[in-house]
Amino acid sequence: MRIGIDVGGTNTDAALLGDDNRVVAGTKSPTTADVTSGVAAAVAALLAAPGADGRPTDPAAVDAVMIGTTHFLNALIEGERLAEVAAVRLGLPATEALPPMVDWPERLRDVIRGGTWLCHGGREYDGRMISPLDPAELRRVAADIRARGLRSIAISSVFSPAAAEDEIRAAEILTAELGDVHVSLSHEIGRVGLLARENATIVNASLRELAEHIVDAFGAALTGAGITAPFFISQNDGTLMDIAHARRYPVATFASGPTNSMRGAAFLSGLTDCAVVDVGGTTADVGILVGGFPREAAGESEAAGVRTNFRIPDVLSLGIGGGSLVAADGEVGPRSVGYRLTEQALVFGGDTLTATDLAVAAGAADIGDKGAVAEVDRAFAERGLARIAERLAETVDRMRTSAAPLPVVAVGGGSVLIPGGLPGFPDVRRPAHFDVANAVGAAIAQVGGEVDRVHKVPEGKRDQVLAGARAEAIRRAEDSGARPGTVRVVDVEEVPLAYLPGGATRIRIKAVGDLDLDRLGAASTGSDEKNGFPTHA
Amino acid sequence: MREIGIEQLADIARGAGILGTGGGGDPYVGLLLAREAVRRHGPVTVVDIDEVPADATVVPISSMGAPTVLLEKLPSGREEINALRALEAVLGRPATHLVPIEIGGVNSMIPLAAAAQTGLPIVDGDAMGRAFPEAQMVLPGLIGVSNSPMALADDKGNTIVVRAVDNTEAERIARAVCVERGCQISCADTVLRGDQLRDGLVPATLTLAENLGRVVREAHAAHRDPVAEARELLGGVHLSAGKVVDVERRTEGGFARGRARLEGEGAVLELDFQNEHLLARRDGRVVATTPDLICVLDTETGEPVTTEGLRYGLRVTVLAAPCDPRWLSPAGLALTGPRYFGYDLDHHPLSG
Asked: Which residues form the Hydantoinase A/oxoprolinase domain (chain A) (predicted)?
C-alpha cells in the first residue's frame, strides 16, 4: 500500500492507496508550524481509519509514502529560514555585463546574497570552451567564501545544460578546498536561459539547510507512526524524487501543489483529457489535463518575484473558495476567512456568512449545523451558488482550446459549492475522495527523466537525433527508479534556434514511468551516480 | 533633447517587443543590459533627428545572433564599445551620435546601453521602424548608403572590419562570423551623416516604443483594454483574437520558419513566421503581409508574444500596423516584401 500526503498552508491531506491502486481511506487534518506533529497526526488518522477490511491499517503494510509540500515555496515568499548563498558563475569573459542576482527583488537579494563571483569557464552553444576553467582562480574564490563564512554554494556555467563538465569540475575544486559545504549545480536544476536557471539554483542553495530539516522532520513523523517504508517528495512536473535528491533539490517542489491536485483528479475520475477545477478555502484553481499531465504555462515563471525557467502548470486562479465572504448583493470573494472557516462560518457557530454557508442553506451540502443558516434566504443562497458556477464556467471556457465537449472534474473541499455543475459544461464530475485529490495525486506520482539541450541536426538526420534524445530521456527515467517497460515519452519539444543557420535545434524530451517499488534502494544510489557528485548531507 | 533614465527603459522594451513583430529577440536581456549600463554610467541623452548637425557622424549599433544564445551566453558588456572603436579607427573620425538600427526587440536596448557607456547622445529613430531578419533590410540601403565598413566584435575582445562589395554580401559575411563566434556578436555599421538622417531613418521610434509600452502598462493596470489602446497608437487594424491551437515549426534555409493557427471570433487566423511574422490569413484569405507590422499581443496584458514564445493554448490578439511608407516603394518591397521571403504574392494593403 502507498500513502500520499499533501502538506498545504492550511490543511495536511492524506490518502491511502491499496495495491490495486484503489483509494482505501482519506483524511484531512490541520498543518502545524513544527512540521512533524502535523504530518504525524495526518498519518495516525489515516492508519486509524477503517481500511478495505474495515479495520485500521498496519504501518508495516505501507510500501512507500509520497509527500507534496509547500514549505519551500512559502519560505521563499516569506523570506525566512533562508541561508546566505555564494553564487559562482563560470563564463568569463562573457556574461560580465549581468552579474548573478541582477534581476532579483532587492529585499530577497539582501537576504540571500552572501557574495557573487564571476570566473572563467563555460561553453559556447556547440560545446566549445568560452575560456578554460582556471583552478587557481577557483581556489581564490574558495578562500573568499571561507572568509565570509558561507556554507551553501550555487554554481552556474554557460550552456551547462548541454555541457555540464565545468560545473562538476568547479564543484570538485571548491569542495576540495572547503570540505563540508552544500553545492547546488545549475545543470541539475534548470534549462537553457542562464539568469533564470542560475536564479533557481541560488534559490535552491538558500533552501538546502531547510530541506535537510524538513526532510528529517518528515522522516521522524513517519518513523513515529511506525512506518519504515521509504518516502519520496513530489516535484513540479508530478514526478517523484527520493529523499537524497530532495535534500539537494528542494526548489523542484515549488509547483507540486497544483500538479498533484490535477493528477489526482485525473486518477480519481479516470479521465486523461479534461479541465480540473480545484476549489479550496480561498481560491479555485482551473487547469487543463492533456494526456494525464497538466498543460504547462508558456514562458518564464516567477517565484516570489524571482524569474526562473521552471515549467509550471498553466493554472488560472479565481478568488472563490469555501471560506469566501459573501457580500450583501450575493457576490462571493475574493476575501476569505481562509483556515478560520471552522471557527467563523455560520454553520460552525461563527458570525460570518461564507460560501460554505450558502451551500448548506441551499441544501447542496450537509456541513456543520444546518440550523445556523435557517435565517439565510434559500433563493438568495441559490442565486449565490449560480453566480459561482457561472464565474467558474467562464474561467474553464477561457482555458479550453477548442469548442469540442470538455469534461470537467471538480475536486477540493470547496467543490461542494458547485453541486449543479457548470453552465455550458454538461459533463461535470466530482469523484469519490474529491476532497483529498492532491494527496491522491502525490500517491500515484511517477518517476521521470528529461533531456533538454541544443543539438546540431544535420540535414536528413533529424529522426536519428530525436531517437537518440528519446532513448536518453527514457534511460534517465529508469536511472531515477522507473520500472523498465513502463517508461513512455510524454513530451517532445523541438525549437530551431532563430537567426542561426546550421540546423542548431533545442530539443526537450520528457519521459515518465511507474515507480519500481522492488528496487527502491537501488534507485537512490542510481540518482547519486547520475549527479556525478557526492552528497554533502 | 531629453534624457532616458532607468524608469523609461521598461516601457521602451515592452514597446520594442511589440514593434519587433514577433522577432528581434525578447528584449528582457537587453532591458537588463541597458538598466545596468544606466545604473553605472547615468542617463542617456536623446536628440531628435532635427537636432543633429549636418556633419555629424551617426553610428548605428546592434547585436546579431540567436535570441536563445543571448539568453544563455550573456554579453561581456564591452562588445558594442569594441565594435564602435574598431569602426572609428577605419573611419578616421569619432562617432558623434549613436542610433538603433532596429527598434524592434533587443536591438532597441543595445544602443541605449552603448550610449550610457560612451556618454554619446542617441538619435530618436531607427533604420527599420520595426524588426527585420537581415542586415541589408535598412532604409539607408534605399538611399545608397553602404553598410560597409562594418565592424564586428565578439565577447572575447576580437574585432573584424568587413568591407564588402554590397550590403547583402556584408550580411552573409557577418552571419558566418557570428556563427563562428558562438552566435552572438555586436555590430557597428551603416554610418550616416547628420544630413542623411531624414531619408535614412524612421523618426521618433524610441519615443513611439516608450509611448506604446507605457500605454499598454497603464491600460492593463487600470483594467482597460491594453490591446485596443496599442492598436490606436499604432494606427493599426484588429485582425483577430483567440487561442493558439497549433504551432508548427521547421528549419528551412537556415531560418526558423513556422506557422501558427489561432481560433477565435468565429474565424481561423493563420500566421506564417520566419523569425518575424510575415503573413496573416483569415479563413484562408491574406489579410496582412510583410513589410507591414503583424504584432501578436497577449489579450489580457497586452504584452508582446514572440514567435519563439508562441505556444498552444495562449490567448492572443493579432494586430497589423502600417510600415514606414518607404518600404512600399518598389526598391523597399524588393528588400522586404513577401516575394523576398519566397511567397508568390504581392504586398497586401491594410484594411479593416
From this structure: 197-397
